[in-house]
Design goal:
Layout: H1 2-10, H2 13-23, E1 28-32, E2 35-36, E3 46-47, H3 48-61, E4 63-65, H4 67-77, E5 84-91, H5 94-106, E6 111-115, H6 117-120, H7 127-137, E7 142-147, E8 150-155, H8 159-175, H9 178-191, H10 209-217, E9 220-224, H11 237-255, E10 261-263, H12 274-283, E11 287-289, E12 305-306, H13 311-318, H14 321-331
Parallel strand pairs: 1-5, 1-12, 2-3, 4-5, 5-6, 6-9, 10-11
Antiparallel strand pairs: 7-8
Length: 332
């Protein structure tokens, strides 16, 4: 029933404008992670042709601004800018430069790219990729792994089972302290008999600093996303300031521009706390994105909507359907 209603509304320009007028008091902040070539369907990625269609759809009725510009307007005027869209991309993968950046540049459209500095340096793997790589490369058809004090036997005979195992591993790592997460990943690599290359292969590699400079010159805001992508609520106070503050310093030194915007890794419940938010403020960032609570707006916890290649879902979120549904559920 809900999907049918979404289709009816998204097929009607009149209903979309009514929906947008009733929910348009806040900017639509959207988050992407990875991209693929045009016509190529890859799970958890948006292909370049779908991304181009999304950008053209946005341009019909909305202005696009960077997250830094959004926060600056809020600080200057005391209220959030209306009728605009903020495009954000997380992590720092090279496919942002390869497939999304050309579409943004063609339309002279800004976006905010949150990057992990050690990842961009080229010698560091993002930890979820380490687990995915191990599961894809192993010859094992099963493994028995200790998770939260229990021994769990997992079948790894096909892509679906390996994907399920990856989700289980990710959930466990998110709940674990930093040293426990690192130990668990080492355990998985040993159990699966997989050795990580010293640098991420093309499938998992980051943009270069030259790519970031080029995009920055073309209107892309570069924001901080820590040095090594930890769960910030799980690390020590000393590590907290290094991950957040030193990340900002490195970006400013390498790119020659002030860095105003920050993105908390993962952005799930429990991933930040008051100490983390204070560290972001202390480091000199103007604002940060976090979570999906579309009924609660704070410049250090600005909510976003995840975007995929589903066209109906995209239009629904763009014109305020997701915001309305979220607030309705929260009231109930």
């Amino acid at each position: 029933m809900r999907q049918r209603l979404k289709r009816i509304i998204t097929d009607s320009r009149l209903l979309l404008h009514i929906l947008n007028r009733s929910t348009g008091n806040f900017p639509k902040v959207m988050v992407y992670h990875r991209f693929a070539p045009s016509g190529v369907a890859v799970p958890h990625r948006v292909s370049a042709d779908i991304f181009a269609w999304q950008l053209d759809t946005i341009q019909k009725d909305f202005d696009v601004i960077s997250f830094g510009d959004c926060i600056a307007r809020f600080l200057h005027h005391g209220f959030w800018p209306k009728g605009c869209v903020v495009l954000t991309v997380d992590d720092g993968y090279s496919d942002m430069y390869e497939w999304a950046w050309p579409e943004l540049a063609r339309r002279k459209m800004p976006a905010t790219f949150f990057v992990t500095t050690r990842f961009v340096d080229g010698s560091f793997w993002l930890w979820p990729d380490q687990l995915e790589y191990a599961l894809n490369q192993t010859d094992c058809t099963s493994c028995s792994v200790s998770i939260a004090g229990e021994q769990v036997l997992l079948s790894l005979k096909n892509e679906s089972e390996r994907s399920s195992a990856w989700q289980l591993f990710i959930s466990h790592c998110i709940r674990s302290e930093e040293n426990q997460r690192l130990s668990f990943i080492r355990q998985v690599l040993e159990l699966l008999a997989v050795e990580l290359p010293s640098t991420p292969p093309p499938e998992y590699c980051a943009v270069s600093w030259d790519h970031l400079r080029e995009m920055q010159r073309g209107g892309i805001e570069i924001g901080g996303h820590t040095m090594s992508h930890p769960i910030l609520s799980k690390i020590s106070p000393e590590s907290l300031d290094r991950e957040i503050g030193t990340c900002k310093q490195i970006l400013e030194e390498r790119l020659g521009n002030p860095v105003r915007s920050f993105c908390y890794p993962n952005s799930g419940p429990g991933d930040i706390n008051n100490d983390v938010i204070a560290a972001v403020d202390r480091a000199g960032y103007s604002g940060a994105v976090f979570g999906t609570d579309l009924a609660s707006w704070d410049r250090f916890q600005t909510p976003r909507m995840g975007i995929n290649d589903n066209c109906i879902d995209f239009v629904w979120k763009l014109y305020g359907g997701e915001s309305l549904a979220y607030r309705t559920r929260k009231v109930k």
